[in-house]
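Why ILV2 protein? Reviewers of the renewal asked for a concrete example.
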Amino acid sequence: MKVDDVPRPACQDIVSMKAQVPDAIFKKASTLTADAPPMLDMGAVQKAGVLLSNRSPHSLRGCEAADLINKAKRPILYVGASHCPEVLAQLAKKAKIPVTTTVASLLCRRLIPLAPCHLHAKCHGMGIFDEREPLSLHMLGMHGAAYANFAIQNSDCIIAVGSRFDDRTTGIVAKYAPKAKAAEKEGTGGIIHINIDKSSFGKVVQPTVAVWADTEHALQALEPLVSAGDREDWLKQCQDWKEQHAFDYVKAAGGQIKVQQVLAELNRYLHEQDVFSKKNVFVATGVGNHQMMACQFLRWIKPRTFITSGSLGVMGAGLPFAIGTQVANPEAMTILIDGDGSFGMTNMDLQTVKRYNLPIKMAVMNDDRQQMVWVWQRLFFEGRYISVTNSNPDFVALAKAYGIHAVQCDNEEDLPKVIQEWMTHDGPMLVDFKVVPDICLPMVAPGKALDEMILLPDRDAVLGTEEAP
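Here is what the prediction returned.
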């Protein structure tokens, strides 16, 4: 039986809320109506040459996007769910445009073809542009790179590719992209929105030019039309921000370890051992601090390799995602980065890992807390803590009870050798990393602009130097 022959639930990929929510709730005013013609109809455009020869009104209006890019002094590519790393890199390098990516949802049946609709994995923008490239500004947003957030706010031309201006990437919308909005009025820039879903246009941010297209087709069409211009000052400014505000953390006292430290060591091992050239590597996560820190401290180099629950924030999804990913990609390395709270919700699926001897490398970042929620209660709810302390089992004993090799690590001296054993073990393995709780920084607080961040130097001022009991 072929995958396509497997019966699908009627819900397929999308669960409609309209049965429970009145239609009027969904009918919100927009200056770009749902029935308006697309700015650039790419249905007939299969390659860039067609756009150059096609003189239809839609194609001519589509050239406005290239014109804005060429006029801009400080453009940035803001990339979400997409599937064309080669053409994206080609355009970015040709036009000298920095690239930032999102944790933006994309349903992936290609990755986990047999998953039912309610277990779809989410693939994300991470890795669509190799983060080792100088033009990469890594992830932006609420817990994204400060340098990416600064670049968005100072850019005169934001090219949104497959992204949807989620609130986690915009901050308060009224203060979003002030320089791009000013450039739009002057005719020297603005916001270009490329998306295959035309209902996303104007839903959050009104674009200067909306390009209704598959992202690959759109970028193929734009690439011959864009030029580099004089952007050396802009690239230098982005690089300066990148150096001044690199992801970092305050080390724990007494040789104890933190999530960031574990991830940084894992990242070092993966790249120094050139694991990515030897096999496909997928990373699945639960939801919480460990998820955002994985975005920050792992360098993503290939698209559709970060399997996590983005905007929905489904705790407990990490282990099922890892199982589905490993089953669909039996020759790949699948790494699970989970938190103790998320892992506690679905760890009974260790029996599935053992039953099929799935060689998943599982990490539990165990700080005995729902730490992200704890931080929010501390900062925004006057320290009124509720349901944020976990009573965890012995995760090593639990894994061993299922016949899975497991060890614990709680100090920086043992960390490198534990990482090596974990990554090279033949078969499934779990590591219980006993980590010191920490805040995930940078952080854009509720009601703040994207560049109004809590940064690492602010840590003690906002969190205090002593933790509450």
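The chain has two domains: 36-243, 250-440. This is the kind of structural detail the renewal will allow us to pursue systematically.
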